[in-house]
Amino acid sequence: MRRELFICCLFCLSLLTLSAQEIPMQEVAALEQVYGDVQESEGLLPMNELGIEFGYALYEAEITVEDVDPILAVENIRDYASVYADGKLQGWITDNQKNIKLTVSTGTHHLQLYAENIGRITYGPEILDNSKGLFGSITLEDVEIENWKMTPLLIRDCDVEELQFTPCQTKQSPCFYRGTFEIETPTDIFLDTSGWGMGEVWINGQYIGSFWENISQRTIPVPAAILTKGINRVVVFELKNNCRQVVRLSEKAIFD
């Protein structure tokens, strides 16, 4: 009886120690490593014309700003995009919020929109039009932006173990982060992504799920089967780049 109680106490202590771990993301990998074939067009092309059924695409163009803080307006966005100007996050657009004010000065700037296809339309009047990404037109102060460069981002298809990481530095654009944690006994746990924006997570090269700050779920289940005794690697792709550089282990699911 005492032996069983002792083993139980050791197990509970290991869970407590495990769940208290913070994992600093100490390395970063550039997103350019997962670029697909670039296409150029005068107008926007939806994801399906870029050969993307699910996942992410990057839309880029040069813009000329004549008045400070201009309004960028998107005709069609499915389903979500983070907006960057000269590598700095401006905000995000969705199907319900298609306008955004750019905090930029007058002159020429490099516009980047990282779009994600969250899912497919399965009901309603638009079920026959399953275009995803950006399509139609994008205007800046009512002037249409032309000459787009569009790049599939092969994030979910890539082998994160093959990415080239460097020591962490301040990174304002979307990228991959990597950190390590150590455990004595693999067990089912959760990864807490509180404070991060939107993206994907892998542990030891295995994809475990996605996160989004707009939903109540803050943790991703991590099965014991993909963990190893000793050092384990976690890779996070961050789309919005909230400048968060720590994830945590948790022994239970966390919801807001």
Automatic annotation (TrEMBL):
Domain Beta-galactosidase 1-like first all-beta residue range list: 46-153
Keywords assigned: Glycosidase, Hydrolase, Signal
Record-level GO BP terms: carbohydrate metabolic process
Signal sequence bounds: 1-20
Pfam families, A to Z: BetaGal_ABD_1 (PF21317), BetaGal_gal-bd (PF21467)
All residue ranges annotated as the Beta-galactosidase galactose-binding domain in the record: 174-232
UniProt GO MF annotations: beta-galactosidase activity
UniProt key word Hydrolase: yes
EC numbers: 3.2.1.23
Protein name listed in UniProt: Putative beta-galactosidase
